[in-house]
């Protein structure tokens, strides 16, 4: 059999160490990328959940819910992601402490658009 790994000349000790360090650097970079992707997914999940809450609480369509979320963020001087995360955390906390149907909706801010 023609095994490409066996066909190579043996590595010297210095070359082996260099190869291993390169592989470890690659692993570290991949771990960082995985962490960045997990963070991005968490943000996206929060924004999607907050949008869904607005749709449920106020009967908005998806575009309107995103517009309202962005407007609240602008009014608060915050990012839509941080407002969404706050909404999700408030609802999760309310649900954990009081599972009475309809009670969680108090965690969703009252409807207010810029200039109102």
Automatic annotation (TrEMBL):
Keyword Coiled coil: yes
Residues making up the signal peptide according to the UniProt record: none
Residue ranges, annotated region (Disordered): 96-116
Name of the protein this chain belongs to: ANTAR domain-containing protein
PROSITE patterns for the chain: ANTAR (PS50921)
SUPFAM superfamilies with a match to the protein in the record: CheY-like (SSF52172)
Coiled-coil segments: 20-47
Keyword terms, alphabetized: Coiled coil
Domain ANTAR: 27-88
GO MF annotations in UniProt: RNA binding
């Amino acid at each position: 059999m023609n095994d490409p790994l066996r066909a190579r000349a043996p590595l010297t000790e210095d070359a082996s160490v260099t190869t291993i360090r390169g592989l470890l650097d690659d692993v570290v970079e991949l771990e960082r990328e995985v962490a960045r992707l997990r963070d991005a997914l968490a943000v996206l999940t929060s924004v999607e959940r907050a949008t869904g809450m607005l749709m449920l609480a106020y009967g908005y369509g998806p575009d309107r819910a995103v517009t309202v979320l962005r407007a609240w963020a602008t009014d608060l001087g915050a990012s839509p992601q941080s407002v969404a995360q706050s909404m999700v955390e408030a609802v999760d906390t309310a649900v954990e402490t009081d599972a009475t149907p309809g009670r969680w909706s108090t965690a969703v801010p009252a409807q207010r658009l810029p200039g109102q």
